[in-house]
Amino acid sequence: MIHSAIHTARPDVNCAAHAHSLYGRTFCTLGRTLDITTQDSCAFYNDHVLYGNFRGVVLEEEEGIAIAQTLGAKKAALLQNHGLLTTGGTVEETVFWFLSLEKCCHSQLLADAAAAGRGETTKKIGNKEAMDTWKVIGSRKSGHFSGRPLFDLIEVETKGDYKN
Ligand SMILES: [Zn+2]
């Protein structure tokens, strides 16, 4: 239901990835979007949303439509109390954004905990720097080419069997 609604709402999206990965789903209990605190997180600057209306296992058509509406034109969504969702023009791009978002969630959980232990908060990247970095690493082309090596590795490790 999620994927169908996204493909209907976003003809530019050829692939959507959704899973309940450990750090993603943990971060999604916080009910907030990512802080822009690392270079990698700049790929999601103004380019991800929080969908905060968890209503149980996604079977309802309306839930998928609501997620697609919240996603809008952005590349990724944090589904509160649920998991991560990324989109892209290619499989490689979409998978790269998913893995990157999972690592951003992991990184922020560690950084927030470390900062809190010192009674401090993390240092945020400025809006201009975040936007300039997004333009370089947040584009569809960048995501696609960042994902290519992962598929090259899978090709070697499986001798191409993963395609069967
Ligand atoms: Zn799910």
UniProtKB/TrEMBL annotation:
Pfam assignment, any one: Aldolase_II
SMART domains referenced in this protein's UniProt entry, alphabetically: Aldolase_II
Gene3D superfamilies found in the cross-reference section: Class II aldolase/adducin N-terminal domain (3.40.225.10)
Domain Class II aldolase/adducin N-terminal stretches: 1-109
Molecular functions (GO terms): actin filament binding
Any single GO CC term annotated in Swiss-Prot or TrEMBL for this entry: cytoskeleton
Entry-linked PANTHER family: ADDUCIN (PTHR10672), CLASS II ALDOLASE_ADDUCIN DOMAIN PROTEIN (AFU_ORTHOLOGUE AFUA_3G01330) (PTHR10672:SF41)
Name of the molecule in the record: (Perigord truffle) hypothetical protein
Phylogenetic lineage: Eukaryota, Fungi, Dikarya, Ascomycota, Pezizomycotina
